[in-house]
Amino acid sequence: WYQRRVSSSGSEMEKSHLVDIDPGRVLNVNLGILGHIDSGKTSLARALSMVTSTASLDKHPQSQERGITLDLGFSAFFTPLPEHLRHLPYDRIQWTLVDCPGHASLIKTVLGGAQIIDMMLLVLDVNKGIQTQTAECLVIAEILMDDLVVVLNKIDTIAHEKRDEHISKTVGKLRSVFKRTKFGADLPIVPVSANPAAVDSQSGSTGPINIQTLMDMLSNLLKEPRRNRTGPFLFAIDHCFPIKGQGTVLTGTVLEGSVRLNQTIEIPSLAISKPVKSMQMFHKPVQQAIQGDRVGICVKNLDSSLLERGLAGDPGSIPTFHAAIAVVNKISYYKATVKTKAKFHVTLGHTTVMATIHFFGLDVTTAGMPTLMNSFSSMLHKGTESTADTSFDFGIEYSYQDELLPCEPTHPRGSQFALLEFEQPVQVPVHSLIIGSKLDADIHTPSCRIAFAGKILTSINRQSVDDMRRLKIAKLKQREGTVDRIVDDYNLIGKDLFKKETDMNRFIGLKLIRVANGSVGVIESSFGKSGKFKVHFPNGGVRPLPQEEGETSGRTGKPKDVLLLNFKKLIFEPDKRLMVQN
Predict the structure, then answer these.
(1) Rounded CA gap, 557 and 547, in Å?
(2) Which of 91, 229, 293, 434 fits as disulfide partner to 25, beta carbons 3.0 to 4.6 Å?
(3) 328-371: per-residue pLDDT in tens?
(4) Distance from C-alpha of 335 to C-alpha of 52, rounded to nearest angstrom
């Protein structure tokens, strides 16, 4: 099912690896290659690769014509299982290279592909350093990864006598940049040349430079990947093609669970289910594939032209919805305000759709909230298991926010949420990663377009009054009035709080504060027809304001005796007249 190629620089031992592979003894690791256009990502993938798939190394006709990567490409190389992972039931590592396009207009493809990555290479042109799309790739890395390897490519373009000095200066500058990121100044940086015609300044040999050093570095840095075969099967499809006499092959990555021969899988975007006829890994038939595996799945009677990429899984496990609630964080590199009711491009898996966003948050001072926020915060890390502790709690009252706020002590990770209203239905499992971007921004502007990231907690029916009523988002309101006159020790008449046409029945029974002495009264009734009202103070003590206290009224020069009415409105409560006070 795959086109196979052994690299011209591959040894006989490497070639034999492709023949003698036992799929059950190979651990697949998805290695993302990201970077600015023309940084040499595809050339690096070609230099590393032993095996290529039908989607790899710029085989797309437009890619060849334009000389840039237009789609995700997949290829692979093998290394022995490193010493620190010898306790695992594997003999070797297959590094599946996910070559992501670097052109700014193709960021949606990058975002979709990034979500299947276990480790990441950020490729830089040694002559240009950090560029616009490099910065966006760094943002993606910070969202998805705890570790990053930087590859300084094209070192062969520097004259031999100046090469070491140039590389040293570039590395120093990069470390000062990465010091301000989660990866720190000491992250691994490997200078290489992926050019097959490069000349090594030390040995004088021709061919790619330092590729083996890079492979060794990756093996040493590899952490034990999380692989869980339990739970519903979820499969990210990145390529689909027909095989005459066999059926249609779906190639991709198992994101969750496992799949076996003859198991029925559903493709929700097409609303069809098909049994698995056969599967291949490493060009060999297999009976099963588990989380993290790259696999080709063959099914019958499926028109490959209907599907380019998407999701497949256990029947009924991938819901379809028009709105969802997610826990989110603002991306620190995004400098514009992320406002409520604004529209953003939201990427979920390989799908990017427009959505209107409403932000709200937890009160961090309320009892029990820190524990809940910690659960949501840990969920935002790649690889965190889905648990009941991270389900959305409709029993809590949340606070309306005009915008998504930066992470800080008053708004820590896990304390802010978003209601996303999609312009078209989406199909992803709950707890899927989401990334919000302004992809319609000028791609030539040197600014980050990725605004926020998070994970879906639950779907919600935006058209259902009962469903939306469960979402208690309170917006604080305040009105200011003044004392018109004192009636007695327990009562006064207020004014300037309501218009004469206001329906006072909505406000009777609400409490207000007399600012001068902090006393609390209750609105008892309207008074006359001009918007005045009667307030009762059950503790008494209603006396005229001393001349020296309070704000001065501009009209009379007398102290301004202020009355404050604070209340909340639940923004999704269908009865717009309803007001709430603590």
Answers:
(1) 10
(2) 91
(3) 999 988 989 999 999 999 988 778 899 999 999 987 666 556 66
(4) 40
